[in-house]
Amino acid sequence: MTNLTKFLQIRSMLIGTLLGDAHIGRTKNSSFITFEQSLAKESYLRHLYELVKAQGFDMKEPVQYNRVDPRYPDNPTSSLYFRTISDPIFNILSDLFLDRSGQKIVPANIADYLDIGVLSY
After folding, report:
1. Looking at the DSSP assignment, which residues form a beta bridge with residue 25?
2. What is the pTM of this model?
3. Separation in Å, CA 88 to CA 29, 32, 39, 65, 119
4. Cα–Cα distance between 3 and 99 in angstroms, integer?
5. Over residues 87-91, mean pLDDT
């Protein structure tokens, strides 16, 4: 199965999560997507992980991340995250969701990509 075929199997999920709280980044020739959720939403994060993993994209297992917001030093938070490999196939999405400075945007033509899968994520 080609990376394009694997990508198309999860494209709606990727677009839907990028419209929400997933992050996309670009390296010199490829892009990656990072997913993060609070520990309370662990099952959702693992669902996303399993979808991406099932398509054969190599990733590390989700990792717990602990942080303290300086505004609330007495209230540390924990979350889980995972990141896809950096792959040129994800440039399709970074070209869509990143402006020239690398900031995430909502594409002007997002209506062209909306389907039931995108909306469900």
Report:
1. 32
2. 0.91
3. 6, 9, 30, 27, 25
4. 24
5. 96
